[in-house]
Design a protein that fits this description.
Order of helices and strands: HHHHHH
Structural class: mainly alpha
Oligomer: single chain
Number of strands: 0
Largest sheet: none
Shape: flat
Distance between the termini: 38 Å
């Protein structure tokens, strides 16, 4: 929805009331569901070529708009992939804290892997 609308705030306003209605606030996965909603909305907005912030960023940097979208997609998608793994782990374990720890470890690993693939060695 964020990708199609090009707005994270509009997506949050549309989806968050539904998510809040589905999960009771005492459920440990309540915060995970809210986080998934916010993260998905921001991801969709960030990779959407019709997003106002994407258009303004490419215009401000004076670069080709679709090239800017293409360069931002890998960065946002790495974070989205780590989040998806974290959400699955949270759903299986019923604990947001285990998935948070796994997500931090996966992000650090992704940074090292991407750094090695770019430079051939880890640079500080």
């Amino acid at each position: 929805i964020g990708f199609a609308m090009g707005t994270s705030w509009g997506t949050i306003a549309l989806i968050l009331p539904i998510v809040i209605g589905v999960f009771p606030s005492q459920d440990p996965l309540f915060l995970v569901a809210i986080g998934a909603t916010l993260g998905g909305a921001v991801y969709g907005d960030h990779v959407s070529p019709i997003s106002d912030t994407t258009i303004l960023s490419s215009a401000g940097a004076q670069c080709n708009h679709l090239r800017h979208v293409a360069t931002q997609l890998p960065y946002a998608s790495v974070v989205a992939a780590v989040c998806i793994v974290g959400y699955v782990i949270a759903g299986l374990t019923g604990s947001p804290w285990i998935s948070l720890g796994v997500g931090v470890v996966l992000m650090i690993a992704a940074i090292f892997v991407l750094n090695i693939s770019k430079y051939g060695a880890v640079k500080a």
